[in-house]
Amino acid sequence: MAGRIDQRLKDLGIELPKAAAPAGSYVPFVIAGSLVVVSGQLPLWNGEMRYRGPIGASLTVEDGYAAAKLCALNLIAQVREACAGDLDRVARVVRLGGFVASAAGFTQQPAVLNGASELMVEVFGEAGRHARAAVGAPILPLDAAVEVEGLFALA
């Protein structure tokens, strides 16, 4: 039987991608006590990079928002793995850290990261409200447009 969060995902018409394997010498998540720290996730859909290049040059703020939302879906997929499939264990989204590949002079990183933040509230309700950082960078791994990391508290 599907849990409350799985049902919410279904009701929202949201499908999660397959949790990505690490691309380097690190693990996708670490559980420390009741916290799950999820490594930075890129805008991948089952291994395929969907958004490449800097926001404000080759991509728009809307593209960046969609890329951040896809990163957030990948975060949730990793948390699902950490919780052995039971997303109802997520008590709180504590913090998101977002990195936005930004063209020179681009300053709308918070608007881009809203794609990830708003998805967390859609999926987890009030427990999805979190602290956040939105940082611009000249380039990200694999030429990704956005990368988002997360900290989640488990019940």
TrEMBL record:
Endoribonuclease L-PSP/chorismate mutase-like domain residues: 7-148
SUPFAM superfamilies in the record: YjgF-like
Pfam families: YjgF_endoribonc (PF14588)
Record's protein name: Endoribonuclease L-PSP/chorismate mutase-like domain-containing protein
Organism listed in the record: Candidatus Defluviicoccus seviourii
Organism taxonomic ancestry: Bacteria, Pseudomonadati, Pseudomonadota, Alphaproteobacteria, Rhodospirillales
